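Escalated from tier 1: adenosine-5'-diphosphate holo job.
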Amino acid sequence: MSEIRIQGIEKIYSGGISALESLSLEIQSGEFLSIIGPSGCGKSTLLRLIAGLEMPSRGSIEVSSRERLSYVFQDSHLLPWRTAIRNVALPLELTRMSREVQLTKALEALDLVGLKEFANAYPNQLSGGMKMRVSLARALVTDPALLLLDEPFAALDEITRQKLDEDLRKLWQLKKMTVVFVTHSIQEATFLSNRALVLSQRPGRIILDRRLKLPEHRDLLTKTSQAYLDEMAALYRALESSKKEEIE
Ligand code: ADP
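Tier 2 regenerated the structure:
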């Protein structure tokens, strides 16, 4: 089933900056799609358009489960005066759920990201990776059908990032949600996703839409396999060709 259908969109910001150009795309329910491209090529714009936070200047976007989507940003955006569990429970406070159910669900979400023991810690007692896990738990607490992530692990060290990448893939497999993941790391996109889009320099156009032929279960050793290196090479070549287009 098609979860997201984007037809011929263009996004021109006030001031005349054209961020995206004639972009069409269908994302199936349950896919893990990464969007890669140079800084400023319109990746975040595309994510915001999918979320309905922005409107396209031209073209159309249909998202079948927009009321069940969650968004994770690069910064964890935690409220410093709230404990981890109360940060995670925040989206549920807008519902009619009893406080007890809210906290039970928040604790379950923290358990999913491996932080149950830190439920009562404040953000300033947590490492960068742990804060990002809390942010992920807050996104998962509403049981989203569609999870949008905008470079969530970019500020983390490589080992922490690798662990979060592995855990995010496991969560995707467990929850069977649709994931759209923006990154400018080709390595991360290859490791995480089943399908990768490479965008050109601004205004972003799709220069490669590729299904990655890699095993469903992935761990650090996946990165040593020939299949992983081949997939990564295909994405690098696409990025390089877009650079040449710019110069010519
Ligand atoms: P990316 O996520 O790929 O780095 P963005 O989608 O953030 O790129 O931005 C694409 C282009 O649109 C950039 O040139 C950026 O400066 C511009 N842009 C993004 N948001 C706005 C805005 N609200 N108003 C004007 N220009 C914007």
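Residues 97 and 142 are 11 Å apart (CA to CA).
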